[in-house]
Write a structure and sequence with these properties.
8 strands; four-stranded mixed beta sheet; 159 residues
């Protein structure tokens, strides 16, 4: 991975456009967990143009617990791997590309990730590294750029 100084930091900025449309929001400022909850952070930055959304109702919080609590987590995303094949042998190029295409759910998405149009989360980055290592290469995958992003989507717990 790149040095920390090479990662574009969030710098306490919140971009509501990064919140997935399916993500459940929370507006319960009385919840004792709201200060570290991604759902509340996203809800507190909802634009005035937002008229409807999925939200957590206040009665779901009981005894200081909320099954919808989603801890605020920042992850390091990577974009682009335009130099991945620079040191790959010709015999490995096609099978490696096919493995990566399957991992990234098809040709269109593969090229979007390759060109840096879509970000790769840490799990996807590790899967790409494993594929490269599986072909016998011991160098780290040269992603083009790194940046910090909030993690969305922890499912509710069964309480």
């Amino acid at each position: 991975m790149k040095k920390t100084t090479d990662i574009n930091s969030l710098e306490d900025k919140f971009d509501y456009s990064a919140v997935p449309g399916w993500y459940t929001l929370c507006f319960n400022a009385d919840c004792p967990l709201h200060g570290n909850c991604m759902r509340f952070l996203a809800g507190s930055h909802a634009p005035e143009t937002l008229e409807t959304c999925r939200c957590v109702l206040p009665h779901t919080q009981k005894n200081g617990q909320c099954r919808w609590f989603d801890k605020i987590e920042v992850m390091t995303m990577a974009t682009g791997f335009t130099h991945l094949y620079d040191n790959v042998l010709k015999k490995d190029y096609t099978p490696m590309r096919k493995s990566l295409t399957a991992l990234l759910i098809g040709t269109k998405q593969y090229y979007q990730f390759l060109r840096g149009e879509r970000g790769l989360n840490p799990r996807q980055q590790e899967m790409i590294r494993r594929i490269v290592r599986g072909f016998g290469y011991d160098w780290d995958v040269p992603f083009d750029r790194y940046y910090e992003a909030y993690s969305f989507g922890n499912p509710p717990t069964n309480q």
